[in-house]
């Protein structure tokens, strides 16, 4: 990879797909999970803040920044459920990684695909620490753009071999079955959430509607299951009935953000939750008994994106899966930025006009 500080490696959608296919989807998610766990184990080193959100009637646009003191990263991401009806992605994203010592960017990349990989990796990583041991069946309620990534991450990291699929749109479920056909996973098409959770030790909810929905009612959740709640990720958007939360041991990424955006926005501000990084470091215990209901209230946190950016930056070395982007002005004399314009004019690169 280039060492020129003014030239930034840029990973386009095309190159991200090439990188994913080169490494393999499951390998990439497994390794991103390793990077996330390593970063969670050094949690106190990071800057932490709830994401900066700009909400509208049709969606949300967010910035997710963090730094470990050596590198700084941020992700731009949106969430617009209405986009699907217009033939557009519900979630799109890009991200940047920078060197804290100079402030110079060292990576610019698409993160729509990378966020799907990161989200699934995080889900499976949480389940590795919280789900009952030996579980082989997961219910996947919501079979949209994230579903296949979730299924494959749970297969690779947690050993799931059967996925019970339900979506209000049968075409989404059929798409998911087609895409998972050659993965070794057994897929079961279900006609209701009730049918989907039957016999499942892990329940993943991942729906897109921006509303307080009840995807899971209390009577559907038996003792001893692990719930991976992915879809509730902004104010006014939840998936689980409040009574499920009251019966569950709740694990979160960063409480100040999750209390605004997650399932626990339905609960009192002081309702007890456990931070997942503490489980990963061994400071607190995750699952404590076989009948316990564990709930990962997943909203996505900036450190996870930082981990994914760090991973891509490392994996690009020795590949051609990036373009060199001339992104930083680099005058011979750092104090003479205007002189760089004059030299460009002298070299015939264009007029230096004066606006009136």
Automatic annotation (TrEMBL):
Pfam families in alphabetical order: OCD_Mu_crystall (PF02423)
Protein name per UniProt: Ornithine cyclodeaminase
Matches recorded under PANTHER family: KETIMINE REDUCTASE MU-CRYSTALLIN
InterPro entries: NAD(P)-bd_dom_sf, ODC_Mu_crystall, ODC_N
Origin species: Albidovulum sediminicola
Coiled-coil boundaries: none
